[in-house]
Amino acid sequence: NAGVMQNPRHLVRRRGQEARLRCSPMKGHSHVYWYRQLPEEGLKFMVYLQKENIIDESGMPKERFSAEFPKEGPSILRIQQVVRGDSAAYFCASSPLAGSYNSPLHFGNGTRLTVT
Amino acid sequence: KNEVEQSPQNLTAQEGEFITINCSYSVGISALHWLQQHPGGGIVSLFMLSSGKKKHGRLIATINIQEKHSSLHITASHPRDSAVYICAVKSMRTDKLIFGTGTRLQVFP
Lengths: 116, 109
Hints:
The structure holds two protein chains of two kinds. By secondary structure, chain A is an all-beta fold. Chain A has strands spanning 5-7, 10-13, 19-24, 31-37, 43-50, 53-56, 65-68, 75-79, 88-95, 106-107, 111-115.
């Protein structure tokens, strides 16, 4: 049973380019969370999605960032016109249950985005 | 002040030592997680607890809801325990995880 799969592991983009980060949740999980970890800082919530629905995007910057979790395929976090401040590790987590306090989280290995 | 505070920020130990990492939080929570992050690696969930104590191998996690405090203990520490340990609480109000900044542990042989 494969865990949460994120790709790519490392992504280098020049300023102004687009970055696409993919997350395939664990089998049977329909809830996906994206978190960002800036250098020397703690993880911060970005967005919570279920299949075809954005449930909570209160942690997403208002501009340039978007996320989707289509019926088929992985969840995608998209960053348009990247800037140096977007350089960070982006982690995805999945869970089988919605919002339940006893629902464990399974994390992927993260995508390390470097903007040059 | 951060809603989740961890101490110490950095910790070094000799192999075999007993390790304690502390986490204090200021919000109402429905659960608390302890996570492990290896350098350049992913994040592994160690424990999720809402009361009492849990044990897994050489790791023990405790939580005191009244005092809003949790501890992670490692008995007979080993160099492979070297990692960043992160405390995260699930806010009862927002239902989101709030993370501490982590404790960097290095265990030397």
